[in-house]
């Protein structure tokens, strides 16, 4: 029984690995050529497999795009969870910093992931079945940030509005790091300053971002 079970698990693992290798080919094409260049033929060529092999896992281009979009969205979520776990603390402020820091790309791998996610989001927005995943993904992150803020700040703060502002700020700054207009350190400093302003009780027009440290200029 044990040997048979191991064999079944081995088959399942091999299936998942072959499927993931095809999705990785999609990500490469999307990153280097754009979503519009993605086709079953191009993916098969990039993955080094036959068209039939791709269609075995993903019968149509729409199936392939939907699976790739779900996979890259899950990858982004997993990175946030891993960053929070690595923080090794239940302190809400530390967890908030970990979440916001993960929205800002630092490494080449980070930048690749963000480029792919941006390309897929642009592709998804005019397609309701995919756009809902974008909306729900950001919505879940906003809810989490709001929950953590509620554990750290005065009760009169609109934590939902503050959470939306923090996520909008961090994702906007992420785009500026991709274009090279600011560094990851500068982006992180700005978003952390805004977080600190909420935590310290700053409200509305009285709030002002702290100036960038000279070493970040």
Automatic annotation (TrEMBL):
The keyword Transcription applies. InterPro entries: BetI_C, Homeodomain-like_sf, HTH-type_TetR-like_transc_reg, HTH_TetR, Tet_transcr_reg_TetR-rel_C_sf. Pfam families: TetR_C_6 (PF13977), TetR_N (PF00440). GO terms for molecular function: DNA-binding transcription factor activity; transcription cis-regulatory region binding. Gene3D superfamilies: Tetracycline Repressor, domain 2 (1.10.357.10). Residues 16-76 form the HTH tetR-type domain. It comes from the Bacteria. Residues 39-58 bind DNA. Keywords: DNA-binding, Repressor, Transcription, Transcription regulation. PANTHER family: HTH-TYPE TRANSCRIPTIONAL REGULATOR BETI (PTHR30055:SF234), HTH-TYPE TRANSCRIPTIONAL REGULATOR RUTR (PTHR30055). This is HTH tetR-type domain-containing protein. It comes from Nocardia ninae NBRC 108245.
């Amino acid at each position: 029984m044990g040997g048979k079970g191991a064999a079944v698990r081995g088959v399942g693992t091999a299936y998942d690995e072959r499927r993931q290798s095809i999705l990785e080919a999609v990500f490469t094409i999307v990153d280097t050529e754009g979503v519009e260049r993605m086709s079953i033929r191009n993916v098969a060529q990039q993955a080094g497999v036959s068209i039939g092999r791709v269609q075995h896992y993903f019968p149509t281009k729409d199936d392939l795009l939907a699976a790739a979009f779900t996979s890259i969205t899950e990858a982004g979520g997993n990175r946030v969870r891993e960053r929070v776990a690595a923080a090794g603390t239940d302190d809400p402020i530390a967890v908030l910093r970990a979440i916001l820091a993960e929205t800002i790309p630092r490494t080449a791998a980070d930048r690749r992931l963000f480029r792919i996610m941006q390309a897929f989001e642009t592709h998804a927005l005019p397609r309701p079945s995919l756009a809902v995943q974008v909306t729900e993904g950001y919505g879940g992150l906003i809810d989490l940030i709001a929950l953590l803020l509620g554990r750290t700040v005065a009760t009169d703060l609109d934590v939902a509005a503050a959470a939306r502002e923090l996520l909008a700020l961090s994702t906007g700054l992420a785009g500026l790091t991709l274009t090279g207009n600011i560094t990851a350190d500068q982006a992180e400093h700005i978003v952390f300053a805004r977080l600190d302003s909420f935590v310290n009780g700053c409200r509305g027009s009285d709030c002002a971002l702290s100036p960038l440290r000279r070493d970040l200029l």
